[in-house]
Design brief:
Helix content of chain B: 40-55%
Distance between the termini of chain B: 13 Å
Shape of chain A: globular
CATH superfamily of chain A: ACP-like
Radius of gyration of chain B: 21 Å
CATH architecture of the largest domain in chain B: Up-down Bundle
CATH class of the largest domain in chain B: Mainly Alpha
Number of helices of chain A: 4
Largest sheet of chain B: 4 strands, mixed
Oligomer: heterodimer
CATH architecture of chain A: Orthogonal Bundle
Distance between the termini of chain A: 14 Å
Order of helices and strands of chain A: HHHH
Chain lengths: ~80, ~375
């Protein structure tokens, strides 16, 4: 999937997270969703599948660093890096 | 969502059924009594490509889609849950997880061997004091100059008695981490476990790791990501296999019940003509159909690599395993005393079904996962 603007991945990631965490739960793009205890044990697995499918990337062994996944902003940075932008 | 089988999937289902009818069903009760399945059967499973069903052809696999793989688990599970459990641990928990997260070298070394069954794999997660509560794992790893040292005990490990390769999940300074451990590693011993309620031919064992030295290249996945990455992927794969296997048990119970009801007389009429028996059969078939649709839906989403496939697989496993227990209990009831005797398969299905509610995340674990998902957003489930 093409992500023409910087806002692209952020919107898609947030939409997914709200769906998983609950529409009524508020958190900022820079907040650590793991530290806030917003996600359950299956979440990391779902997140990887979601990012691969939505952004047409392959999450590899070496990408599994919590820093890549802890917040909306960090995930966006990770996606843009993976897509070479 | 189209849940109809394609012509290819239908043809595969016929192939699996024919294999099961001739190679498995006539012998399954004996395997259960003996407490093991013969190597000859395992070789046949390997020769058919059933041990590498979903692996790519490049590794010697049959490259089946997930819906077809579900059918394989259902058909094998309809005859022999012990054989289905070999497919679960070997293919779903281990081979598919190595394909997903293994290094290039690990894949090149192991997948061709696993695809044909030349090597068998088992998954070492449970311990005497840690089942569903994986945080309680006591097996430890320590970093050495050229690798790792493992110490601990793994219990209830399916096919530990025959496996050549073990995935061992251990606790260490960087958290829960997984390793590939070969059977001939010095310090590794396997004690057979007997006396299990169901899947009695699944050759359970206890793995003892006593200062086992593991080379650095056998680290499986990332240090500290063993739980999120390896265990979660493996259990998600395994849940799909167990869901479809449970469906197979239930269907076999239903088929046997209908056959019996058509032939057995009671109070002057065939069982099938008793209204209460009709009610049982109607309820059983409805439950089996519902589980079948949940399993097919999970397979369809898994093939699409949809993130919802994970919770839908959990839902399929939860429903199918509980449903198999209900159906097996009803089938025993319908067969009366005969249903309690080991001359027919019903009593075995009844025992095997209970195991399905405990493995790959117990019923209670699935309830928590499903409820949490539903509370966050019902749209991901319905």
């Amino acid at each position: 999937m093409e992500t023409p603007t910087q806002a692209g991945p952020r919107v898609i990631i947030r939409e997914f997270l709200q769906k998983r965490i609950g529409q009524d739960v508020q958190f900022a793009d820079t907040e650590d969703i793991f530290q806030l205890g917003l996600v359950n044990s299956l979440f990391a697995l779902e997140l990887v599948v979601f990012l691969e499918k939505s952004f047409d990337i392959a999450v590899e062994n070496e990408d599994l660093n919590l820093d890549n996944f802890r917040s909306v902003s960090n995930m966006e940075t990770f996606i843009l890096k993976k897509k070479g932008k | 969502m189209n849940l109809a089988l394609t012509d290819t999937q239908q043809a595969l289902r016929e192939e699996f059924r024919s294999f099961v009818q001739t190679e498995l069903l006539p012998y399954a009760n004996d395997y259960d009594k003996q407490g093991f399945i013969p190597m000859e059967l395992i070789q046949k499973l390997g020769a058919r490509g059933y041990l590498g069903a979903t692996l790519p052809e490049a590794y010697g696999g049959r490259n089946m889609d997930q819906v077809s793989y579900g059918l394989l688990n259902e058909e094998i599970g309809s005859a022999c849950s012990s054989t289905r459990s070999l497919i679960t641990v070997h293919s779903s928990l281990t081979a598919e997880t190595i394909l997903r997260w293994g290094t290039r070298e690990q894949k090149d070394k192991w997948l061709p061997l696993l695809a044909t069954g030349a090597s068998l794999a088992a998954f070492g997660l449970s311990e005497p004091d840690a089942g569903s509560d994986t945080a309680g794992i006591k097996t430890t790893y320590q970093v050495t100059a050229d690798g790792y040292t493992l110490n601990g005990v793994k219990k209830w490990i399916t096919f530990a008695q025959t496996a050549h390769l073990f995935v061992i999940v251990a606790q260490g300074e960087q958290g829960i981490t997984a390793f590939l451990v070969e059977r001939d590693t010095p310090g590794l011993t396997v004690k057979p476990l007997e006396g299990i309620l169901g899947t009695r031919a699944s050759m359970l064992g206890e793995i003892h790791l006593d200062d086992c030295h593991i080379p650095a290249e056998n680290l499986f996945g990332r240090k500290g990501w063993g739980l999120q990455q390896i265990v979660n992927t493996a259990l998600d794969n395994g849940r799909y296999s167990v869901a479809c296997g449970s469906l197979g048990i239930a269907r076999a119970c239903l088929e046997d019940s209908i056959r019996y009801a058509k032939n057995r007389r009671s109070f002057g009429q065939l069982l099938k003509d008793h209204q209460l028996i009709k009610q049982k059969i109607a309820n059983m078939v409805t439950e089996v159909k519902a589980a079948s649709l949940l399993c097919r839906n999970a397979g369809y989403l898994r093939d699409k690599k949809d993130p919802d496939s994970i919770i839908q697989t959990s839902l399929a496993k939860y429903h199918a395993s509980r449903m198999a227990n209900n159906i097996a209990a009803e089938a025993v009831q319908l067969h009366g005393a005969l249903g309690c005797h080991d001359s027919i398969s019903i009593q075995r299905y009844f025992r095997d079904a209970k195991v399905m509610e405990i493995i790959e995340g117990s019923t209670e674990i699935q309830q928590i996962l499903i409820a949490d998902h539903s509370i966050a957003g019902l749209s991901t489930i319905l």
